[in-house]
Amino acid sequence: MRFTENDIEDALTIVRRVVPPTPAYAWPLLAKETGVEVIVKHENHTPTGSFKARGGLVFVDALRRAGLPKGLITATRGNHGQSIAIGAEQAGIPSVIVVPEGNSREKNAAMEAFGGELLISGRDFDAARRVAASEASRRGFLNVSSFSRDIVRGVATYGWELFSQHPDLDAVFVPLGMGSGICSLIAMRDLLGMKADIIGVSAERAPVYAETFQNKRRMIGTQAATFADGMACKEPPEEAVAIVLAGAADVVSVSEDEIAEAIRSLYSATHNVAEGAGAAGYAALARHRDRFKAKKVAVILTGGNIDRDRMAMVLAGQTPPA
After folding, report:
1. Contact, 251 vs 213, CB < 8 A?
2. Global model pTM greater than 0.85
3. DSSP strand pairing (24-26 vs 37-42)
């Protein structure tokens, strides 16, 4: 997936109406902990608390130019749903957000607050996707995937910001869910002529991207039981897989305990709240710190939308259940 500078400038114009540039700070306590110059890209500082806000805004704006549908429907674990709800609200059309049973209560509340109609159905994300497809047909709404060109184009604005501010990065660690985050970084690195290695991060309990990278072909996962719900993917999009295989330097895995420890480290060092997926990049860097001694590495804190009870467990030294 390739973009031109005009593509990104257009996306930036759309995104800037709602999302200001997010900070990318070097935190000395993280450097002390790892021996690496660590840059944290704070995508937890958007109006929805995650990087996904960017993609939904650009996606809905593209629909507006082509002709808006009757409404939008999408399946999500939370952050993507917030982005579609906020985009639909701005466009003046309804949105239905399908989440699986047992989804984050606080993410559910946020999606409703942004104007989405919440529909709880399905045992997991993949079941919720099937419900969304059926409901879209019944209502005559457009079923929105969490991976498409315009969503990736919107998300790519964070990569543009990061590489513009820190052009000398040696590597970037980014969590893997459906793939918009890593694919946008690969696209921006290539567009701007940077040399940074892009390293994807999977949860050990949602290992489909790690297995895909190892086997050099798209795999279908059998489990996605991680408390880092933004990484709970079993069926990665084919287009995302092709981009990752062609453009990522590596895909590594982290355990549930490592993710929880990374949340604690980020809180102690930066006093920022990270959700599970948001901490996964730092968890991976911490595991592989010896590979990056004395180098400059960014981690994408993709979101801070973790429920209060789970954050309390993490700060108490426990690892939440999936």
Report:
1. yes
2. yes
3. antiparallel
Beta-carbon-side half-sphere exposure of residue 14 (alpha carbons within 13 Å): 30
Classify 40 as helix, strand or coil. Answer: strand
Start-to-end Cα distance in the chain: 33
Amino acid at position 77, single letter = R
Task: Say whether 178 sits in a helix, a strand or coil.
Answer: coil
Helix (H) or strand (E) holding 173: strand 171-175
255 touches 225 (CB < 8 A): no
Amino acid identity at 249: A
Q: Please name which of 266, 23, 304 lies closest in space to residue 158, comparing C-alpha atoms.
A: 23
Q: Give the model confidence (pLDDT) of 198-244 as tens digits.
A: 999 999 999 999 999 999 999 999 888 999 999 999 999 999 999 99
Specify burial of residue 184 (Cβ count, 10 A radius: 0-12, 13-18, 19+).
buried
β 117-120/95-99 pair status: parallel
Q: Answer yes or no: are the C-beta atoms of 275 and 230 closer than 8 Å.
A: yes
